[in-house]
Amino acid sequence: MMRLFLLPLVCIACVAHEPGTSLGTFAVTGTLKTQTCGATMQSQIEDPWAFDVRLSRSGTTLFWLQAAAPPLSGILDPSGNATLVTTQTYDLSTNDAGTGCSVLRTDTFKAALGSAPQPADFTGTISYHYELAEGAVCGGLLSGQFDVVPCDVSYDLKAKRSTP
Question: Can you give the residue ranges of every domain in the chain?
Answer without folding.
Answer: 25-163
